[in-house]
Model the fold of this input.
Amino acid sequence: MRSVNLGETGLREVAPGVRRQTGLRELYLHGNQLTNLPDWLGDFTELRILDVSHQPLVALPDSLGRLKSLEFLYVSELAISRLPSTLGDLGSLVYLGATDNGLTEVPESLGRLTSLVELRLYGNRLTTLPDSYGELTALRELHLDRNPLTRLSDTFDQLTELRVLSLRANTLTDFPVQLARLPRLRHLDLRANRITRLPDLAPDAFPALEKLDLRWLDLPVVPEWVHDLERRGCLIYRTAAG
Done:
């Protein structure tokens, strides 16, 4: 596998010589001083891994959507406020890390990433996610901590492969009842939201849940289904009495 690692080398621009690399499978440009990326990065059609995280990039080029073989994309801790909609064309992508940016919204087109297994969007400014994200049918991990999310789309009950969902430190006021129907969800983190009431759910809610984190929620009453989960062996973290 052909790999080029120029990470943490103080780059301020990507040298044209990189363009002459052939058969490139891995390209690491993280931890530099890049403010933009050349459009010709989209010519590396055999690329499997691209890491451009941890630098002052102000935008990602639309040409990244041409990387049809890309499986891992790291675009965390940049100066971007949006992701290009063309990322929805990355049909081979299994991992997307876009954490700790200034994202106020995410493209609806990312719902087309039907190979995506893990999505990390924590530390942004997202208030909602598009309904199309219910079409991420291969998704197993979704990390949304530290966003001002106010609600989850009803389509989340379509994420039947989801195992881990982390929603710590958002601004949810209503418990997302659609999650109770997810057949493989094992870990659900709702810490430090604004939920003050848990709904009544059927005894068979959350059939695979192993850990439910309700710490730092003001919950004067805990309904019976939570105790049912405990009796089934689910680990419940909570700070309110109930």
Summary: The helical segments are 224-232. The CA atoms of residues 128 and 152 lie 7 Å apart. The longest strand covers residues 24-28. The domain at 2-126 is CATH 3.80.10.10 (Leucine-rich repeat, LRR (right-handed beta-alpha superhelix)).
